[in-house]
UniProtKB/TrEMBL annotation:
Name of the protein in its database record: Rhodopsin domain-containing protein
This protein's UniProt keywords: Membrane, Transmembrane, Transmembrane helix
Sequence intervals crossing the membrane: 6-30, 42-62, 87-111, 123-142, 191-215, 227-247, 267-289
Domain Rhodopsin: 26-291
GO annotations of cellular component type: membrane
Keyword Membrane included in the entry's annotation: yes
Family of the protein in this entry: Belongs to the SAT4 family.
Locations listed in the record: Membrane
Region (Disordered): 302-394, 399-418
Mode of membrane association: Multi-pass membrane protein
Length: 418
């Protein structure tokens, strides 16, 4: 019986792609509900579509190159068959870096929305964004033109044979002591190793920043740890990239006649890309899960005080800016960027944060320099485990209340804007 690990590699490709479809679908659904669709979502959507192209290319490459089989079990093939396999290899290679670059860009834009007042962090994020853009342009051009003409990458056998026949070369393709070829290629192993090292450095760089950003904030350690774990999924991407690099380097350094087809490298590259998309999509799902599973979320994610609101937790006037306050409920789709008036909400024991993009610097009270929009993570930076200190309120039309602070049985307006 022929030994093979090809089904395992194909299952890995299909499984990771299916999970990513769920992640991206939930993220887009969350953005639709809260009307908070931004450029980071656009980048993730494009990255997901390109990841499908990459997965298709990897799947076809696995089948055409008989990856997962021992080299002595690979059947004879025609020149056209091998050229088709190399074409899919080219497609998989061209669609590898763009999604990863878009994922880094999306995470960077997301963190820029969070780190509003952290100047050092913001400078580092801008540097990452610039470095990521630069490497994308450079490596995309090099990847495209690694062989000239470009077609030589997948059709080199036919082009070499045609060139040798025109030159009158011998049966080994030699003429005047030189090998006649139909094109030229760069040193592919060196290029792939160099590019992979740059990818890994950028991944680790981007991994450290959110951890530093969140760990220095004045929020409960439990929530801080949860947010760091979610964002640290990017470390898995860096680990997979490193593993892929080590495996590929061993394959390139293997002596002639080695069992180079018995590998699952293709599955690793798909896993690396999809885990990166999960990392970028996960923080945006906090609000969705809090809305769909409020009891579970309150118990395991955002604990609040169990006390009931007292009789004093009322305002003398039951309207602000012409909108009802007491008993008001946020209707579907209402948020800072949605249409229609946004009614203020009074809550006790739990801080909702501003829905969607959260508080902007313009919406904060004059003495609030916290800077970080942690409602993007699903919690307020001033909220404690036992009892929330306040609820962020947004109101449009007439007079607006930026923040309401609840403390010991009463609610007082923290800032009223004319």
């Amino acid at each position: 019986m022929v030994e093979t690990i090809q089904p395992r590699a194909i299952a890995l490709v299909c499984t990771f792609q299916a999970i990513t479809f769920i992640f991206v679908g939930l993220r887009l659904y969350s953005r639709r509900i809260f009307r908070d669709f931004g450029w980071d979502d656009v980048l993730i959507l494009i990255a997901f579509l390109l990841s499908i192209v990459h997965a298709v290319g990897e799947y076809a490459m696995i089948k055409y190159d008989f990856l997962g089989y021992h080299v002595w079990d690979v059947p004879p093939t025609t020149m056209e068959f091998r050229a088709t396999g190399k074409l899919f290899t080219f497609i998989a290679g061209m669609s590898y870096n763009p999604p990863l670059s878009l994922i880094r860009a999306s995470i960077t834009l997301f963190l820029l929305r969070v780190a509003e007042s952290k100047r050092t962090i913001r400078i580092s994020l801008y540097l990452i964004f610039a470095a990521n853009l630069l490497q994308f342009v450079v490596f995309f051009v090099v990847e495209l033109c690694q062989c000239l003409p470009v077609k030589y990458f997948w059709d080199f056998e036919r082009m070499d044979l045609a060139a040798q026949q025109r030159a009158g070369a011998d049966k080994n393709g030699m003429k005047d002591g030189k090998l006649v070829t139909g094109g030229k290629c760069i040193n592919k192993p060196r290029f792939y190793v160099g590019a992979a090292i740059v990818y890994i450095i950028l991944d680790f760089w981007l991994l450290c920043l959110p951890i530093i950003l969140l760990w220095n904030l004045n929020i409960p350690r439990r929530r801080k740890t949860t947010a760091v774990i979610v964002l640290s999924m990017g470390g898995v991407t860096a680990f997979l990239a490193t593993t892929r690099l080590v495996i590929m380097k061993k394959q390139w350094e293997a002596p002639p006649g080695s069992d180079y087809t018995y590998t699952s490298t293709s599955g690793i590259s798909v896993a690396e890309m999809n885990v990166g998309i999960w990392t970028a999509a996960a923080p945006a799902l906090n609000h969705l899960f809090a809305r769909l599973f409020p009891r579970i979320w309150k118990r395991y994610g955002h604990k609040s005080s169990s006390r009931s609101p007292g009789p004093d937790e009322q305002l003398a006037d039951d309207t602000i800016g012409g909108h009802p306050v007491n008993g008001a409920k946020r209707s579907r789709g209402m948020g800072p960027t949605g249409g229609g008036p946004v009614m203020p909400i009074i809550t006790s024991g739990i801080s909702l944060g501003t829905l969607g993009r959260g508080r902007s610097t313009q919406d904060r009270p004059p003495n609030d320099n916290s800077g970080e929009d942690l409602s993007l993570f699903g919690f307020d930076e001033n909220q404690s485990d036992s009892q929330a200190d306040g609820a962020s309120i947004i109101a449009r039309g007439g007079r607006s209340v930026s923040t309401l602070s609840s403390h010991q049985g009463y609610v007082k307006p923290a800032s009223v804007e004319p």
